[in-house]
Amino acid sequence: MSEQLNNQEDIQDVSEVETAEEISTIDRCLTFESAGLILYISTKHVIEIINNHSITTLPLMPSYIKGIINLRGQILPVVDIQQRMGKGPTQSTGNVCIIVLDIDTVSLGIIVDSVRQVMDIDLKNVRPIPLKHQQKLLNGMVNMEDGSVFMSVDCQALAVPQ
User: Fewer CB within 10 A of the end CB, N or C, for the chain?
Assistant: First the structure.
């Protein structure tokens, strides 16, 4: 009888470990649109989202760096993610906003067309981008239940200048 009880406890312990592993593959992500793509980034890197902030341009910068902003005394570079992906510059519309990120102690803002929502993405479902369509800043894609495809932004590549 005690052997049977120990087996049931072992089974319960194993199922708890499996549940913990399943939970660890889910990442809370901010989804947004840029260059006609739906992109996402882990909320671990997102500090805030700001609208209508004045960007000061700087001379002799790569074209994808739109300038700097002063955010409560902190000077942050602002990157046009669409242009950084090799597309044209983001067109200014009423929905354009800046997502402020902190990537390994590097703070920066990215200009995006619009912010969608925060959602949980199961990292087990993320697949590599087919080689012929691979972008320098994108490191994975996930097919959603509604048939849409979300692309993962490679934060390390975003924080390092080209």
Answer: N
